[in-house]
Amino acid sequence: MSDDLNNQDTPPSKSQLKREAQALTSLGKQLVELDKTMLARLKLGDTVLTAIHDAQKIKQHGALKRQLLYIGKLLRQTDTDDIINQLESFKSIAQQQNRIFHELEQWRDKLLADDQALTNLLDTYPAIDRQHIRQLIRAARKEQSQSKPPTAARNLFKYLRSMILSD
After folding, report:
1. pLDDT for position 109
2. Last residue of one domain, picked from the residues 29, 52, 78
């Protein structure tokens, strides 16, 4: 019984405080690595935002480290739950975009390697212009056989991206 009372009244340990400070410093580092558009979408205070912009300009390692520690100190005074949730949503959006990008690359590679892949693609995405995609495939295969730069393959990828993402 007295043990429970002692646990409730004791402040966090020094190690716990250090771990929390390091977590906020690493959060600050993640914020510094974001671009301006993503930073604008976050709800950060003016002082934190100014410190982040200053850190993005710093090139020297020691100075950057000090600035990151300062950002961590500023973050201790703010509610970081919303910031962390927003960063997680940014990561999930980026992962989803990467997954879509890889699927498009796979479709392009399949189309260049196999004639049956075109039938599968047209079954999956009936809005694709049959004649146009055949011309793109033919041009990309011709480039491949002549060991030319993959301009037509890029055009095929762009067309696939525009048609599949429009669905």
Report:
1. 92
2. 78
